[in-house]
Specification:
mainly beta, Immunoglobulin-like, Sulfite Oxidase, Chain A, domain 2, 2 domains, five-stranded mixed sheet, five-stranded antiparallel sheet, 5 helices
Length: 421
């Protein structure tokens, strides 16, 4: 089996990248008559950087906040000039939370010292971080887009409040039409916010995406990004941060029977493709794979012949998964030159997850990012087939393990049926 490189020019907004993909061979009993095959596989269809306008949008609110214009937009503090973020202590106590949180210096609108965008970007001159992350909703299978986020670690912003006492959790929310019923909020533990080890991925207040100001639709002017989390913690239009002694999560998603502490999952997804292919031609399959909290070891597929009158796709707990023959897929290689990927002026040596001396990724794929997988199915005889894909993490767990619980994020093994005619 040989590996070959193919490339194509993308638009300038999508940048240019070259991907090395191997041709996969299929040997599955009567399903294939070849043990090896050579094929040039097209360049992966997914850019490593998703243009802001190409993200799938899940904005909430009626009307959606990013549709505001004119005075309504200014009153909402959602322009670069009017954006403000308050940092305050939570006075809440009860039978369990016996002492209120307090801090040396509150930053509020009433006092005229709430954090503004120039002050945040001034912090960025010393503390700026870059991070490549794929945004994914807990309840939607495929990621919504991937970009290079730029901003200031949350810990540096919280230090503006001086000394704090009785703080166990950080609550935060963004603008949602000033309607209490539409408030969308999330939270982090104090440790998650303040004690990220050097070189690791901290929660941060982002003010740029792909080298440009974050658009209103993407949650700008400022959005809170939590690298390891699903999108419900990446609060858009963030405007208020509360330090609290209440140790309990206040995430809006928790109220909908979701796990508010779930991390991004390692999982593979199939691109939409044809359901009929011509006999004698390789069947090319591709998709994306997310490297979640537990990293990615490999992506693998299972192809089996579907007999006439076969039942619907096998259930997730079917014993056949364990008996099936899973074959490794080809994975997109890291670009040889990241200058073609990142915005002008951004060095990979300055991006978290990259070696500061060589400018190369310390792991591939980067945690919390997505890349393309592919497989070429060769010498298929006429008939009907079912193709399944799964990711295996660095602990050796194969999708949908170790967490096949939809409350922690959709992680089902996807399948595609097709026919060779």
């Amino acid at each position: 089996m040989k590996s070959q490189i193919s490339s194509k020019n993308l638009s300038r907004r999508e940048f240019v990248r070259t991907t090395s993909l191997a041709a996969a061979a299929l040997t599955a009993g009567a399903a294939s008559s070849s043990t090896a095959a050579e094929s040039v596989i097209p360049t992966a269809p997914h850019p490593l950087i998703t243009p802001q306008d190409d993200y799938f949008d899940l904005s909430r609110g009626t009307p959606k906040p990013h549709t505001l214009t004119g005075k309504a937009l200014i009153d909402a503090r959602m322009t670069p000039e009017t954006w403000r973020c308050e940092i305050v202590a939570d006075p809440y106590t009860d039978d369990v939370v016996k002492e209120p949180a307090n801090l040396t210096k509150s930053l509020t609108l009433d006092d005229g010292n709430a954090l503004d965008l120039p002050a945040l970007m001034e912090l960025g001159k010393e503390h700026r971080v870059y991070f490549l992350k794929a945004i994914q909703c807990l309840n939607i299978g495929t990621p919504l887009g991937q970009g290079l986020w730029e901003g200031v670690p949350l810990r540096e912003v919280l230090r503006l409040a001086g000394q704090v006492h009785n703080v166990r959790r950080i609550y935060y929310w963004g603008f949602h039409n000033n309607n209490p019923e539409q408030v969308f909020q999330s939270s982090l533990s104090y440790t998650e916010a303040m004690e990220t080890p050097p070189g690791e991925f901290p929660p941060f207040l982002a003010y740029k995406l792909n080298g440009e100001p974050i658009s209103l639709k993407r949650g700008g002017p400022v959005r809170l990004i939590v690298p390891w989390a699903h999108g419900f913690k990446d609060i858009k239009w963030v405007q208020r941060i509360i330090m609290t002694n209440d140790f309990r999560s206040n995430d809006t998603y928790a109220n909908q029977n979701n796990d508010p502490e779930s991390h991004l999952k390692t999982a593979a997804y199939i691109d939409k493709t044809e359901d009929k292919f011509s006999f004698g031609q390789p069947v090319f399959m591709s998709g994306i794979v997310m490297a979640g909290y537990s990293g990615l070891q490999r992506v693998e597929y299972w192809l089996h012949h579907v007999e006439p009158g076969a039942k619907p796709p096998l259930p997730q707990d079917e014993k056949m998964y364990g008996d099936a023959r899973w074959i490794p897929c080809a994975l997109e290689a890291p670009p040889a030159d990241w200058r073609w990927i990142f915005p002008v002026g951004v060095s990979p040596k300055d991006v978290l997850g990259f070696d500061r001396k060589t400018g190369r990724p310390t792991t591939w794929p980067l945690r919390y990012s997505m890349i393309t997988w592919s497989a070429a199915l060769c010498d298929l005889r006429p008939g009907k087939y079912e193709f399944r894909i799964r990711a295996v993490d660095l602990n050796g767990y194969a999708q949908p393990e170790p967490r096949p619980n939809p409350h922690t994020g959709i992680n089902a093994i996807e399948a595609h049926r097709f026919e060779v005619v």
